Amino acid sequence: MHRNSPTHDLHDADQVRARIGSLTVIDVRTPGEYASGHVPGAVNIPLDQVRRAVPEIAGAAGRGEVLIVCASGARSGSACELLAGRGVRAASLSGGTQAWAGRGYPLERPGGDGTAPGACAVPRGTWAMERQVRFTAGILVLLGTVLGAALHPAWLLLSGGIAGGLVFSALTNTCGMAAVLAKLPHNRPARADLDAALERLRSGGDR
C-alpha cells in the first residue's frame, strides 16, 4: 500500500521542462551516472548522502520547490520519502532522467576538464548503476551455475537467490544490489565535491 500511495508529488518531464528555471533540481544518482548526463542545473547529492544534506535541502525547499531526479524514478522516490519523514517536501521526476531524455530534452554533461556545476569528480569510464547491477547479477548467476555443476549443487542456490532478488526488485521498484554497489569507492563522491554541492544548495544554486 505504501508504494502505491507516495508521500510526494510526481512531475512529468514536460511539466519540469516548463518550470525548470524555478526549481532546485537534485540528482541522487551516483557521480558516474550524473556525469554521463543529467537534467540541466541539477546538483549531485547521491542517495546515500541525502541524510547528510537534509539541512541544505530544507533550506532550498524554503526558497522554492525542490525536484529530486534519478535514472527511472525509484531512487528519487526513496529520497522524497526520506525527506518527507524529516518534514521536507520535495517532488520527483516521473520516469527520471530516462523520461527526460526520451522526450528529447537536453542533458548536461561535464566539460572538457571533467567538471560541471554541482558535479562530483569520477573516474573516467565509470558505468551507470543499472549497468553495474546487470553485470554483477550476471556474474553471480554464472558463478553459481558453474560452481553448482563443478563442485556441489548447493551453489545453485546462489543463482536462484539472485533471480529471486531481481523479481523482488521489479515488484517493489527497489534495488538492494544498487544500494550495496553505491557504497563502493568508485561510486562515492569525494568529500570536497560533496561539500561543494552542499554549498551550492546553501547559496541558492545556479538557476
From TrEMBL:
Where is the Rhodanese domain positioned along the sequence?
19-109
Family matches, as InterPro entries: GlpE_sulfurtransferase, Rhodanese-like_dom, Rhodanese-like_dom_sf, Thiosulphate_STrfase_CS, YgaP-like_TM
Pfam family, any one: Rhodanese
A Gene Ontology molecular function term of the record: thiosulfate-cyanide sulfurtransferase activity
**Gene3D superfamilies associated with the record:** 6.10.140.1340, Rhodanese-like domain (3.40.250.10)
Q: What is this protein called?
A: DUF2892 domain-containing protein
Q: Which organism is it from?
A: Streptomyces tsukubensis (strain DSM 42081 / NBRC 108919 / NRRL 18488 / 9993)
Q: Please spell out the taxonomic lineage of the organism that makes this protein.
A: Bacteria, Bacillati, Actinomycetota, Actinomycetes, Kitasatosporales
